[in-house]
Amino acid sequence: MKMLVAGDWVDKEEKIEVLNPYNGSVVDTVPRGEGSDVARAVEGAVEGLKEMKSLTSYERYEILKRTSELLTDYKERFAQTLTQEVGKTITEARREVDRTVQTFLWASEEAKRIYGETVPFDAAPGAETKMGFFIRVPVGVIGAITPFNFPLNLVAHKLAPAFAAANAVVLKPAEQTPLSAIQLGELLLLSGLPRQAIQIVTGFGEEAGDPLVADPRVRMITFTGSMETGKKITSRAGLKKMALELGSNSACIVMRDGDLERAAERISRGGFSLAGQTCISVQRVFVQEEVFDKFLQSLIPKVKNLKVGDPAEESTDVGPMIDEEAAKRAKDWVDLALEEGAKLLLGGEQEETLFHPTLLTEVPKNCNLFSKEVFAPVVMINRFKTLEEAIDLVNDSPYGLQAGIFTRDLKGAFEAARKIEVGGVMINEIPTFRADHMPYGGVKGSGFGREGPRFAVAEMTEIRLISFELS
Ligand code: NAD
To answer: Is the CB of residue 245 below 6 angstroms from any atom belonging to ligand 1?
Structure first.
């Protein structure tokens, strides 16, 4: 496939191979973009921005709504691409396309709701003779950099609100999974988006992402990816707006009065979907000691039942990890935890890119499995005595994206909601829950800024005050 630069589909001599993580076959190739391509793309986006600014809200609504409709028409094609490039199961891939349809639909509606406010100037002594209001204007050219795990919907969470708010975007998709993003670019052009409003430069982070971050014509960076890359980006960006959706080692508390069966069922999904490669995957579970054994009796058979294998098969629950290195790292972390005294309850085996669903207990705090993001189908289950202790354990993390608590006690639930330091607390639900219109994002090492079309539009616009002198 080609990249989209300054209105043209562009190829290059040097290519990146996109591999199917399950069988290693080459799905397709994309050009290996670099600094000079990024510079041309930004130049094109500056032109595209002028066209975006001349569109009415209604026209932007129509473009995004049409994209959503086309995505519905081409659902199966997109789902197949996702399965091949990410290795997610075909069921997960179809779900991602369905969600992307909704993300575009929400964003289309938000294009009609970008309001300002009047300012009561006469409330300030000396300003009585003025009347005024503020409007929201697009930030300008936005650089969007995305990760491999949801290469369609997370790209949509950047592009759709950016266009709703009349910005132009230079997108640098993940090098492992650029194909669905390119297909989405085709749909946006078919839907009538001004040709230069979207630029897609494929390439590696250091070669294509870094020059985009550093370009002074880019007014905002919206990034989803790891904390390590997020730190590099903040130190390179200079004076730019910034929205960072980073990783997590999400935690879930199970209280003795919680619905244990539901908790076990949800955790058996939330820890292992997409082979644990979700930013809000359940990684750390804390269970109150009185119900610890009962909870495990319910959880272990459910996880044992998950079918691991070919993501193209309808019956597969857990597909491969993105590459063998990622699976090997997960294996090393599990082995290290076992050396440190953790106990293996299930799994722990690696076969090339496949990593079998793994449960551990008694994981010490100093282990990577406790303190870092494992991003693999691995869940640790430790015990606690009091809610206060559980909240401290959840907060004992460099991250703060989302957390869950299973309890029937309202007071305890609200205490957890107030004291846990995250962007979202799910009561009687796992941290992995996300509806695409809700405000979504983290605190601490999980980043800042919120996605969800309404909230992303707010991030991607700026306030412009207009005042009239009436004297
Ligand atoms: P990554 O940080 O390795 O890569 C993400 C993107 O950044 C890629 O496009 C990559 O090419 C680019 N990049 C790498 N180095 C760069 C640099 N120096 N300058 C500019 N761009 C650079 O992440 P990944 O492995 O693709 O994705 C996994 C991570 O993403 C996990 O940490 C996961 O939790 C996180 N994630 C977060 C969310 C969220 O919404 N909070 C969602 C999905 C994934």
So the answer is: yes
